[in-house]
Amino acid sequence: MTASTTQATTRATRATRATRATRAARTQTAAVTTTADSSDATGPNQEPRRDAGQPGRPHQQHRAVDRPPRDLTAQIAYLTRAIRAPTIAAVWADLADQAREDGWSHEEYLAAVLARQVAAREANGTAIRTAGAHFPAVKTLEDFNLDHQPSLRRDVLAHLATCTFIPTAGNAILLGPPGVGKTHLAIGLGIKAVQAGHPVLFDTATGWVTRLRTAHDDGRLATELRRLHRYRLLVIDEIGYIPFDAQAANLFFQLISSRYEQGSLLATSNMPFSRWGEIFGGDDVVAAAMIDRLVHHAEVLTLTGDSYRTRNRRELLAKDPATPGRNI
Ligand code: ADP
Ligand code: MG
Protein backbone atom coordinates (compact mmCIF):
# COMPACT_ATOMS: atom_id res chain seq x y z
CA MET A 1 0.00 0.00 0.00
CA THR A 2 1.38 3.47 -0.94
CA ALA A 3 1.57 6.35 1.51
CA SER A 4 -1.22 8.24 -0.26
CA THR A 5 -3.48 5.15 -0.29
CA THR A 6 -2.84 4.70 3.43
CA GLN A 7 -3.73 8.34 4.11
CA ALA A 8 -6.90 8.05 2.05
CA THR A 9 -7.92 4.89 3.92
CA THR A 10 -7.26 6.57 7.28
CA ARG A 11 -9.36 9.56 6.25
CA ALA A 12 -12.19 7.30 5.11
CA THR A 13 -12.08 5.33 8.38
CA ARG A 14 -12.14 8.56 10.37
CA ALA A 15 -15.09 9.86 8.36
CA THR A 16 -17.02 6.61 8.95
CA ARG A 17 -16.23 6.76 12.66
CA ALA A 18 -17.30 10.40 12.84
CA THR A 19 -20.62 9.60 11.11
CA ARG A 20 -21.21 6.69 13.49
CA ALA A 21 -20.31 8.88 16.49
CA THR A 22 -22.69 11.61 15.32
CA ARG A 23 -25.51 9.08 14.87
CA ALA A 24 -24.78 7.58 18.28
CA ALA A 25 -24.74 11.01 19.89
CA ARG A 26 -28.12 11.84 18.30
CA THR A 27 -29.61 8.58 19.53
CA GLN A 28 -28.22 9.21 23.02
CA THR A 29 -29.58 12.74 23.09
CA ALA A 30 -33.02 11.42 22.18
CA ALA A 31 -32.74 8.75 24.87
CA VAL A 32 -31.56 11.24 27.50
CA THR A 33 -34.36 13.63 26.63
CA THR A 34 -36.94 10.85 26.83
CA THR A 35 -35.64 9.55 30.17
CA ALA A 36 -35.17 13.02 31.55
CA ASP A 37 -38.64 14.00 30.50
CA SER A 38 -40.24 10.99 32.07
CA SER A 39 -38.44 11.30 35.40
CA ASP A 40 -38.60 14.97 36.26
CA ALA A 41 -41.72 17.08 36.27
CA THR A 42 -39.57 20.23 36.19
CA GLY A 43 -38.28 19.42 32.69
CA PRO A 44 -38.69 21.96 29.94
CA ASN A 45 -41.40 20.02 28.04
CA GLN A 46 -44.49 20.45 30.11
CA GLU A 47 -47.12 20.76 27.39
CA PRO A 48 -49.95 18.23 27.08
CA ARG A 49 -49.09 15.22 24.92
CA ARG A 50 -50.55 14.81 21.42
CA ASP A 51 -51.06 11.15 22.10
CA ALA A 52 -52.68 11.68 25.51
CA GLY A 53 -55.44 9.20 26.18
CA GLN A 54 -54.60 6.83 23.32
CA PRO A 55 -55.30 3.30 24.46
CA GLY A 56 -52.32 1.05 25.03
CA ARG A 57 -49.73 3.84 24.86
CA PRO A 58 -47.99 4.79 28.09
CA HIS A 59 -48.46 8.54 28.50
CA GLN A 60 -44.87 9.37 29.35
CA GLN A 61 -43.19 7.84 26.34
CA HIS A 62 -42.28 9.37 22.94
CA ARG A 63 -43.07 12.89 24.05
CA ALA A 64 -39.61 14.37 23.55
CA VAL A 65 -38.92 12.35 20.42
CA ASP A 66 -42.20 13.46 18.83
CA ARG A 67 -41.76 17.06 19.79
CA PRO A 68 -38.26 18.43 20.34
CA PRO A 69 -38.14 21.13 23.00
CA ARG A 70 -38.70 24.61 21.72
CA ASP A 71 -36.92 26.38 24.50
CA LEU A 72 -33.27 25.43 24.24
CA THR A 73 -32.28 27.47 27.30
CA ALA A 74 -34.78 25.64 29.47
CA GLN A 75 -33.63 22.33 28.04
CA ILE A 76 -29.97 23.07 28.83
CA ALA A 77 -30.95 24.21 32.32
CA TYR A 78 -32.81 20.96 32.81
CA LEU A 79 -30.08 18.73 31.36
CA THR A 80 -27.31 20.36 33.40
CA ARG A 81 -29.40 19.75 36.54
CA ALA A 82 -29.94 16.14 35.48
CA ILE A 83 -26.18 15.52 35.15
CA ARG A 84 -25.37 17.72 38.15
CA ALA A 85 -23.23 20.14 36.19
CA PRO A 86 -24.05 23.57 37.65
CA THR A 87 -20.91 25.15 36.21
CA ILE A 88 -21.95 24.24 32.68
CA ALA A 89 -25.34 25.79 33.44
CA ALA A 90 -23.58 28.96 34.56
CA VAL A 91 -21.06 29.30 31.73
CA TRP A 92 -22.52 27.80 28.56
CA ALA A 93 -24.26 30.96 27.36
CA ASP A 94 -21.28 33.28 27.86
CA LEU A 95 -18.94 30.77 26.27
CA ALA A 96 -21.35 30.38 23.35
CA ASP A 97 -21.19 34.16 22.78
CA GLN A 98 -17.42 34.00 22.96
CA ALA A 99 -17.37 31.02 20.59
CA ARG A 100 -19.47 32.94 18.04
CA GLU A 101 -17.30 36.02 18.36
CA ASP A 102 -14.02 34.15 18.08
CA GLY A 103 -15.18 31.56 15.55
CA TRP A 104 -14.57 28.47 17.70
CA SER A 105 -15.33 25.07 16.24
CA HIS A 106 -18.02 22.95 17.92
CA GLU A 107 -15.29 20.81 19.40
CA GLU A 108 -13.49 23.83 20.85
CA TYR A 109 -16.70 25.09 22.41
CA LEU A 110 -17.50 21.69 23.90
CA ALA A 111 -13.97 21.36 25.30
CA ALA A 112 -14.14 24.84 26.86
CA VAL A 113 -17.49 24.15 28.53
CA LEU A 114 -16.38 20.76 29.86
CA ALA A 115 -13.03 22.14 31.04
CA ARG A 116 -14.81 24.75 33.17
CA GLN A 117 -16.99 22.08 34.77
CA VAL A 118 -14.04 19.79 35.47
CA ALA A 119 -11.99 22.66 36.96
CA ALA A 120 -14.89 23.63 39.23
CA ARG A 121 -15.37 20.03 40.34
CA GLU A 122 -11.65 19.62 41.08
CA ALA A 123 -11.52 22.87 43.04
CA ASN A 124 -14.54 21.76 45.04
CA GLY A 125 -12.97 18.37 45.80
CA THR A 126 -9.71 20.03 46.85
CA ALA A 127 -11.57 22.39 49.20
CA ILE A 128 -13.42 19.47 50.81
CA ARG A 129 -10.24 17.40 51.20
CA THR A 130 -8.31 20.40 52.59
CA ALA A 131 -10.95 20.96 55.26
CA GLY A 132 -10.95 17.23 56.07
CA ALA A 133 -7.16 17.09 56.46
CA HIS A 134 -7.16 19.32 59.58
CA PHE A 135 -3.96 21.14 58.73
CA PRO A 136 -3.02 23.37 61.68
CA ALA A 137 -2.19 26.30 59.37
CA VAL A 138 -1.99 27.15 55.68
CA LYS A 139 1.64 26.76 54.61
CA THR A 140 2.60 26.20 51.02
CA LEU A 141 5.74 24.86 49.39
CA GLU A 142 5.79 27.99 47.27
CA ASP A 143 6.10 30.10 50.46
CA PHE A 144 9.03 28.06 51.73
CA ASN A 145 12.30 29.99 51.53
CA LEU A 146 14.77 27.46 50.16
CA ASP A 147 17.66 29.89 50.62
CA HIS A 148 17.37 29.32 54.34
CA GLN A 149 17.99 25.59 53.74
CA PRO A 150 20.98 25.50 51.40
CA SER A 151 21.75 21.87 52.15
CA LEU A 152 18.17 20.64 51.65
CA ARG A 153 18.00 18.15 48.79
CA ARG A 154 15.81 20.09 46.42
CA ASP A 155 15.47 17.25 43.92
CA VAL A 156 14.01 15.06 46.68
CA LEU A 157 11.63 17.81 47.77
CA ALA A 158 10.56 18.34 44.15
CA HIS A 159 10.00 14.60 43.79
CA LEU A 160 7.90 14.48 46.96
CA ALA A 161 5.88 17.45 45.69
CA THR A 162 4.78 15.38 42.68
CA CYS A 163 3.04 13.01 45.14
CA THR A 164 4.01 9.97 43.08
CA PHE A 165 5.12 8.24 46.29
CA ILE A 166 1.51 8.12 47.50
CA PRO A 167 -0.01 5.58 45.07
CA THR A 168 2.86 3.22 45.90
CA ALA A 169 2.39 3.71 49.68
CA GLY A 170 5.83 5.25 50.08
CA ASN A 171 6.76 7.43 53.05
CA ALA A 172 8.49 10.76 53.63
CA ILE A 173 10.41 11.70 56.76
CA LEU A 174 11.59 15.18 57.69
CA LEU A 175 14.24 15.44 60.38
CA GLY A 176 15.82 18.49 61.97
CA PRO A 177 15.98 20.79 64.99
CA PRO A 178 13.05 23.02 66.05
CA GLY A 179 12.04 25.94 63.86
CA VAL A 180 13.71 24.86 60.61
CA GLY A 181 10.44 24.36 58.72
CA LYS A 182 9.53 20.67 59.16
CA THR A 183 5.88 21.39 59.93
CA HIS A 184 5.78 24.00 57.16
CA LEU A 185 7.03 21.46 54.61
CA ALA A 186 4.74 18.73 55.99
CA ILE A 187 1.70 20.97 55.50
CA GLY A 188 2.94 22.13 52.10
CA LEU A 189 3.39 18.54 50.91
CA GLY A 190 0.02 17.61 52.45
CA ILE A 191 -1.63 20.39 50.44
CA LYS A 192 0.04 19.08 47.28
CA ALA A 193 -1.37 15.63 48.05
CA VAL A 194 -4.84 17.04 48.59
CA GLN A 195 -4.59 18.94 45.28
CA ALA A 196 -3.53 15.71 43.58
CA GLY A 197 -6.78 14.15 44.77
CA HIS A 198 -5.55 12.17 47.79
CA PRO A 199 -7.43 12.20 51.10
CA VAL A 200 -5.00 13.35 53.83
CA LEU A 201 -5.21 13.52 57.62
CA PHE A 202 -2.81 15.60 59.71
CA ASP A 203 -2.09 15.35 63.44
CA THR A 204 0.80 15.52 65.86
CA ALA A 205 2.31 12.29 67.20
CA THR A 206 0.64 13.02 70.54
CA GLY A 207 -2.68 13.62 68.75
CA TRP A 208 -2.41 10.28 66.95
CA VAL A 209 -1.68 8.44 70.20
CA THR A 210 -4.66 10.11 71.90
CA ARG A 211 -6.91 9.08 69.00
CA LEU A 212 -5.64 5.49 69.10
CA ARG A 213 -5.85 5.29 72.90
CA THR A 214 -9.49 6.37 72.80
CA ALA A 215 -10.22 3.79 70.09
CA HIS A 216 -8.39 1.12 72.10
CA ASP A 217 -10.30 1.96 75.30
CA ASP A 218 -13.58 1.72 73.33
CA GLY A 219 -12.54 -1.69 71.95
CA ARG A 220 -12.40 -0.42 68.35
CA LEU A 221 -8.66 -0.03 67.68
CA ALA A 222 -8.68 -2.45 64.73
CA THR A 223 -11.70 -0.69 63.22
CA GLU A 224 -10.04 2.70 63.64
CA LEU A 225 -6.81 1.52 62.00
CA ARG A 226 -8.87 0.10 59.11
CA ARG A 227 -10.86 3.34 58.84
CA LEU A 228 -7.62 5.30 58.50
CA HIS A 229 -6.85 3.42 55.30
CA ARG A 230 -9.30 5.70 53.53
CA TYR A 231 -6.65 8.42 53.93
CA ARG A 232 -3.94 7.85 51.37
CA LEU A 233 -1.54 10.05 53.40
CA LEU A 234 -1.29 10.42 57.17
CA VAL A 235 0.91 13.23 58.46
CA ILE A 236 2.49 12.59 61.87
CA ASP A 237 4.06 15.80 63.09
CA GLU A 238 6.46 16.26 66.00
CA ILE A 239 7.59 12.74 66.80
CA GLY A 240 9.90 13.11 69.77
CA TYR A 241 8.72 16.28 71.46
CA ILE A 242 6.86 14.28 74.09
CA PRO A 243 8.19 10.83 75.05
CA PHE A 244 5.69 7.97 74.99
CA ASP A 245 4.86 5.52 77.77
CA ALA A 246 4.87 1.82 76.92
CA GLN A 247 1.18 1.72 75.89
CA ALA A 248 1.56 4.82 73.70
CA ALA A 249 4.67 3.32 72.08
CA ASN A 250 2.75 0.12 71.39
CA LEU A 251 -0.22 1.96 69.86
CA PHE A 252 2.11 4.06 67.74
CA PHE A 253 3.88 0.93 66.54
CA GLN A 254 0.52 -0.51 65.49
CA LEU A 255 -0.23 2.62 63.48
CA ILE A 256 3.11 2.42 61.64
CA SER A 257 2.68 -1.32 61.05
CA SER A 258 -0.85 -0.97 59.72
CA ARG A 259 0.36 1.54 57.13
CA TYR A 260 3.38 -0.50 56.00
CA GLU A 261 3.08 -0.94 52.21
CA GLN A 262 -0.63 -0.06 52.51
CA GLY A 263 -0.73 3.72 52.83
CA SER A 264 1.68 6.62 53.01
CA LEU A 265 3.06 8.35 56.08
CA LEU A 266 4.73 11.74 56.27
CA ALA A 267 6.51 12.01 59.61
CA THR A 268 8.52 14.84 61.15
CA SER A 269 10.90 14.58 64.11
CA ASN A 270 13.41 16.75 65.93
CA MET A 271 15.29 13.59 66.96
CA PRO A 272 17.73 11.65 64.75
CA PHE A 273 16.80 7.97 64.32
CA SER A 274 19.65 7.03 66.66
CA ARG A 275 17.72 8.61 69.55
CA TRP A 276 14.24 7.26 68.79
CA GLY A 277 14.63 4.69 71.55
CA GLU A 278 14.38 7.61 74.01
CA ILE A 279 11.02 8.61 72.51
CA PHE A 280 9.55 5.13 72.85
CA GLY A 281 10.04 4.52 76.57
CA GLY A 282 13.70 3.56 76.19
CA ASP A 283 12.69 0.56 74.08
CA ASP A 284 15.31 0.42 71.35
CA VAL A 285 13.80 -2.77 69.90
CA VAL A 286 10.38 -1.17 69.27
CA ALA A 287 12.09 1.96 67.94
CA ALA A 288 14.24 -0.09 65.53
CA ALA A 289 11.22 -2.09 64.30
CA MET A 290 9.33 1.15 63.72
CA ILE A 291 12.18 2.87 61.87
CA ASP A 292 12.66 -0.28 59.77
CA ARG A 293 9.05 -0.12 58.52
CA LEU A 294 9.05 3.65 58.12
CA VAL A 295 12.22 3.95 56.06
CA HIS A 296 11.88 0.83 53.90
CA HIS A 297 10.13 2.81 51.12
CA ALA A 298 10.90 6.36 52.16
CA GLU A 299 12.58 9.58 51.24
CA VAL A 300 14.36 11.13 54.24
CA LEU A 301 14.97 14.86 54.16
CA THR A 302 17.22 16.43 56.77
CA LEU A 303 16.80 20.11 57.57
CA THR A 304 19.56 22.00 59.31
CA GLY A 305 20.45 25.42 60.65
CA ASP A 306 18.97 27.98 62.96
CA SER A 307 15.33 28.33 63.75
CA TYR A 308 13.57 30.45 61.15
CA ARG A 309 11.61 32.12 63.94
CA THR A 310 14.69 33.33 65.82
CA ARG A 311 16.47 34.22 62.58
CA ASN A 312 13.65 36.60 61.66
CA ARG A 313 13.77 38.00 65.16
CA ARG A 314 17.55 38.41 65.02
CA GLU A 315 17.29 40.20 61.66
CA LEU A 316 14.67 42.60 63.01
CA LEU A 317 16.72 43.31 66.11
CA ALA A 318 19.85 43.88 64.03
CA LYS A 319 18.02 46.45 61.88
CA ASP A 320 16.85 48.48 64.88
CA PRO A 321 19.70 49.34 67.27
CA ALA A 322 17.24 50.97 69.67
CA THR A 323 15.30 47.77 70.19
CA PRO A 324 15.72 46.57 73.75
CA GLY A 325 17.19 43.11 74.07
CA ARG A 326 19.00 43.28 70.71
CA ASN A 327 21.76 41.12 72.04
CA ILE A 328 19.43 38.17 72.58
P1 ADP B 1 9.58 23.09 62.77
O1 ADP B 1 8.36 22.30 62.51
O2 ADP B 1 10.81 22.56 62.13
O3 ADP B 1 9.80 23.34 64.24
P2 ADP B 1 8.08 25.17 61.54
O4 ADP B 1 7.72 24.56 60.26
O5 ADP B 1 7.01 25.24 62.58
O6 ADP B 1 9.39 24.53 62.14
O7 ADP B 1 8.62 26.64 61.23
C1 ADP B 1 8.54 27.70 62.17
C2 ADP B 1 8.02 28.96 61.47
O8 ADP B 1 8.99 29.41 60.54
C3 ADP B 1 6.76 28.72 60.67
O9 ADP B 1 5.98 29.88 60.71
C4 ADP B 1 7.28 28.48 59.26
O10 ADP B 1 6.32 28.86 58.30
C5 ADP B 1 8.48 29.38 59.22
N1 ADP B 1 9.57 28.84 58.41
C6 ADP B 1 10.49 27.93 58.76
N2 ADP B 1 11.37 27.70 57.79
C7 ADP B 1 10.97 28.48 56.76
C8 ADP B 1 11.46 28.69 55.43
N3 ADP B 1 12.57 28.10 55.00
N4 ADP B 1 10.79 29.54 54.64
C9 ADP B 1 9.69 30.19 55.08
N5 ADP B 1 9.17 30.03 56.32
C10 ADP B 1 9.81 29.20 57.16
MG1 MG C 1 7.01 21.55 63.90
Describe this structure in words.
The chain is of the alpha/beta class. It has two domains: 65-133, no CATH class; 141-310, Rossmann fold (3-Layer(aba) Sandwich), CATH 3.40.50.300. It is built from 13 helices and five strands. It has helices at 3-39, 63-66, 72-82, 86-102, 106-133, 154-161, 182-195, 205-217, 221-227, 246-259, 276-279, 284-296, 308-319, and strands at residues 171-175, 200-204, 233-239, 264-269, 298-302. Strands 2-3-4-1-5 form a five-stranded parallel sheet. Helix 5 packs across helix 7 (182-195) and helix 8 (205-217) crosses helix 9. The radius of gyration is 30 Å and the shape is globular. The model is unreliable at 1-68 and 323-328 (pLDDT under 50). The protein binds adenosine-5'-diphosphate and magnesium ion. Residues 139, 143-145, 148-149, 176, 178-184, 308-309 line the site of adenosine-5'-diphosphate.
Give a short overview.
With 328 residues, this protein is α/β, with parallel strands linked by helices. Helices cover 55% and strands 9% of the residues.
